Amino acid sequence: MKKIAIAAVMTAGLALSACEANVTEEGEMPTMDVDVSGDAGQLPEIDVETADVEVGTEEVTVDVPDVDVKMPSEK
């Protein structure tokens, strides 16, 4: 169980370190009145540069052992 937790933490760390994010415009909290009217606010703008990942396939031949199964005879 500890190995799974360690692997999950390492995977999350790798995923978070694989991109770079820069905040280009700060966000703003909405202003509200008691009358439920107000300014909707603004979400921050963020530029994200992700890692370059190359994915490909490779054809591999795998030797599979020959397995003989002997079923018990019925009486």
Can you walk through the features of this model?
- The chain has 75 residues and is an alpha+beta fold.
- It is 21% helix and 23% strand.
- The strands form two sheets. A two-stranded antiparallel ribbon has the order 1-4. The chain has a two-stranded antiparallel sheet with strand order 2-3.
- The longest helix has 16 residues.
- The protein is elongated, with a radius of gyration of 28 Å.
- The two termini are 46 Å apart.
State the gist of this model.
It contains one helix and four strands; from the N terminus they run αββββ. The two termini are 46 Å apart.
Task: Give the SSE map.
Blueprint: H1 2-17, E1 19-25, E2 31-32, E3 38-39, E4 45-50
Antiparallel strand pairs: 1-4, 2-3
Mean pLDDT: 81
Count of alpha/pi helices: 1
**Ends distance:** 46 Å
User: In one word, what is the shape?
Assistant: elongated
Q: What percent of residues adopt helix (DSSP H or I)?
A: 10-25%
